[in-house]
Amino acid sequence: MRPEPILKAWGIGIMDMELDAGVEVGARVLSHPDGQICSDLSLAFPVMTVSACGDDEADTLMGNLGISGEWEVYTSENAPFQKGVHYELLPDKTSRFVEECTYGKTEIKGPGTSDGGEFAALANKTHTYYVRYGALY
């Protein structure tokens, strides 16, 4: 449930407002040819959007005139609380959290090192997922 007040004057709806606020969680997964899998996980709070006259179901004067607007108050880039972490699953099946990606900085032996092996179908492909306001997009 979110607040959707309508400003009224003399019983006539002038404009409606909506406020969406929540948390944004992101995950980016990259599979490398040598079998190393890197994941970037991120969290931003709060993410907040304010919109005016954007509700088609609200019968307002400004909405009927086609006047509307939307403002992103906080996004994942400027949210007061942001946290990111890099997680690696190595070809030898060990895993670790690191400050930054180590792929290509050290030589790692394991499945897929020579020909891509079991990871060939996913090699060098990025998969990105975000959850915002509790909905996957």
Q: Briefly, what is this?
A:
This protein is mainly beta and 137 residues long. The chain contains 1 helix and 8 strands; from the N terminus they run E-E-E-H-E-E-E-E-E.
Q: How big is the Rg?
A: 23 Å
Percent strand equals over 45%
Helix-strand topology string: EEEHEEEEE
Q: Give me the number of helical elements.
A: 1
Largest sheet: 8 strands, antiparallel
Strand pairing plus helix content: what structural class? mainly beta
Mean pLDDT across residues: 75
The low-confidence parts are: 107-124
Helix content: under 10%
Name the overall outline.
rod-shaped
Distance between the termini: 19 Å
SS elements, strand count:
8
How would you describe what is shown here?
This protein is mostly beta strands. 3% of the residues lie in helices and 50% in strands. It contains one helix and eight strands. Strands 1, 2, 3, 4, 5, 6, 7 and 8 form an eight-stranded antiparallel β-sheet that branches. A hairpin with a 2-residue loop joins strand 1 and strand 2. The longest helix is centred in the middle third of the chain and has 4 residues. It is rod-shaped. About 13% of the residues have low confidence.
What structural keywords apply?
137 residues; eight-stranded antiparallel beta sheet; single chain; mainly beta
List the helices and strands and how they pair.
Blueprint: E1 6-9, E2 12-31, E3 37-52, H1 61-64, E4 69-74, E5 81-89, E6 95-98, E7 125-132, E8 135-136
Antiparallel strand pairs: 1-2, 2-3, 2-7, 3-4, 3-5, 5-6, 7-8
